[in-house]
Amino acid sequence: MKTSKLLLLLFLQLFFFQGLFAQQAPFQDEVNKLTARIDSIGWEKGSIVFTGSSSIRMWKNLQEEFPNIPIINTGFGGSQASDLFAHLEALVLRYDPVAVFIYEGDNDVNAGKSPGVIMQDLDKIRYQLNEQRDEISIYFIGAKPSPSRWQLKAEYEAFNNALKLYTEGMISSKYVNVWNPMLDSVGNPRPELFLGDMLHMKPEGYKIWKEQIRPILKEWEEVYKK
After folding, report:
1. Of 118, 119, 174, 214, which is the most buried if we count CB atoms within 10 A?
2. Strands of the sheet with 71-75, listed across from one edge
3. Is the model's pTM score more than 0.85?
4. Could you report the per-residue pLDDT of 28-52, keeping only the tens digit for each?
5. Every domain of the chain and the residues it spans
């Protein structure tokens, strides 16, 4: 009788742990494929990592835009800040970068998350990055003004303000404003910068991002020359 109960207990434990291990974090398959592709191409330790949601993933010519700096693009899916935190080791930490550009918060706001919740996730990311490399520079790219999400304008502005305030006074963390440069003269988003879904950007949109990021990377060019 005792043997039967023991076998049943072992079976239930095995079933439980199999189910536990079978569960995967969201985007796990995409992250696996992405990291395998990066490994097949080769990467340089001490590069600059660009990561975050699809606006980073779809910036296909990032390395061509800034040819004098080693860049690794680990943008993935329609991710949120919590997803990046879950995959931080695979997408950022293992490369031991000197700087990281992060674009998260866009999908978080659209999912109904408050600025406070999003900032908690971004703060956990910053803490983990600083744990690995004290002098790492972290650049948080603010949310862009997408026509398809313009009904959430107030929520996006609140998030961007929270992100800007969060980085004020920090030496190693900075806010990158892409919101204002993408608005027209009366403060509305410019549809000509976006693809048909009015969410993802055309090259014209990325051109604005490049102009906002260029001054930062010009400084890094000098570092890599030394």
Report:
1. 118
2. 71-75, 48-52, 99-103, 137-141, 173-176
3. yes
4. 999 999 999 999 999 999 999 999 9
5. 27-217
